[in-house]
Specification:
The protein contains 16 helices and 27 strands. It is of the alpha/beta class. It is globular and about 75 Å long. The two termini are 43 Å apart.
Length: 539
Amino acid sequence: MIGFAAQPKILLSNLIQGLNLSKKCPRLSVKGLALDSRNVQPGFIFFALKGLKKDGMNFIPQAIERGAIAILTESDTVNDLRVTQINKGSKYSIPTIGIERLSEAVSLIAGRFYGDPTERMTVVAVTGTNGKTTCAQLYADLSSQVSALANASYEDHKTGVVGTLGHGIAGEKVAIDNHLDLSAGEILASPLTTPDAITMQKILADLQVAGCDTVAIEASSHALDQGRISSIAVDTAIFTNLSRDHLDYHGDLAAYADAKRKLFKMPSLKNAVINIDDAVGKAIFSDLDPNIRAISYSLENITADIYCQALHFSPMGFRALIHTPWGSGEIVSRLLGKFNLCNLLAVIGAFVIQTDESESNTFSKVLKIIPTLNSVSGRMELIDNVNGPAVIVDYAHTPDALEKVLKTLHLHCKGSLWVVFGCGGDRDIGKRAEMGEIAKSNADRVIVTSDNPRTESAGKIIQDILVGSTKDVIVEVDRRAAINRAIGDAGEDDIVLIAGKGHENYQILGVERLPFSDQIEARLALRDTADTDTFGGHL
């Protein structure tokens, strides 16, 4: 983990100040914070939160055993309750303090512990079903390169990024607290799109100490609903879109949308960049606080502040003429698809409105940088090859995303369009059949396989996708075999889309996380294809 030099002495009373406690807080010096009892060290506070599957109250004894000096609970009635744990004849007694809406207060407490880093940073947060990762990464890359174009010292301007792919710094290689080297495109992996509230504040503090004055973060619906970023000073919020996803958590689309809306109600918010082609986005835009500067964007709606006037696709990307409040200009991009143009419009809007110089000048600089921006790992990622079909790896794991990717690739495909995909286990069952129908309707050849089955039967998941119909669909449960079959059978003018896992370098079978990379498997299959073409058989 990245190390952060916190203040030498931080009192518990200062961390929970203003949280309406009924009794005087004990005078305790805090050395760290933990949401997981296994991470507790001597001098730490343990947050006994109730999760979806486990209740932190059940792990208080373990936290005490590991050296916790105080327990914070979600009760709004308990304050300074004495908790006793007997272990090997020894008696431990520490205060347990109940705090109202503790899950939301964790971000505040953690922010105070790490010195409220976002008070000294510009924070751009991206939310939406699709496009969060691409927008955050593109923003960070753009920010770094515009600074270089302006001949500014790299030490004077660094941009961090936090999201699905992990966290890191866009630009030249730097060291954070002498514990880790991060470079452009090199990130620390994260198990969550948006880290937990403590980890998030710690990451932001590390990035700030390393010299970042700007950071782009992904704000997932889970994080917004659980208050993981509630005390982060977000300056600019981007809304990309909303389609079916995470209904196993939210219950319905209305609750899912409400979680996204929370980002645009944050008291720190100054700017909002919103896709008004999306119905929810249009509603959010209309409901914004009048003190927030609002920028709308659209692919074709000429009432938007930023919209596309003309668009031309090629096998190498696209050209687009766009209208903005700062004039019209041409985008030349190596990215693929209308949705990536949409992502670029969002990023351009968010970047320009935060400039310290003339917005029109900044817009001109941005147009010069756009051709250098590359796709994000696992997001419409073209696998380099000499022979064989074009192979694309994409994270599309929702019905909306899969449909968009397939329709996009048709614009670039001269031959047949193949898709290899599955659906994750222990997740939204309702989207499986929908994705099956989308695949059969929008691809020429379909191979249904495993994704991350987790504790479900891979065969049962596949049957849910197919809804009993296997007509014109190839079923290959083993994902490696499915990828090999698609690439081996596809022609040179064909495109093979491997969808669902994107950047992930693992596959979850049961409770095991086993090494697996769609990119590596695709490269190996392409190598075998090249060997076969050259020598008439495998080497």
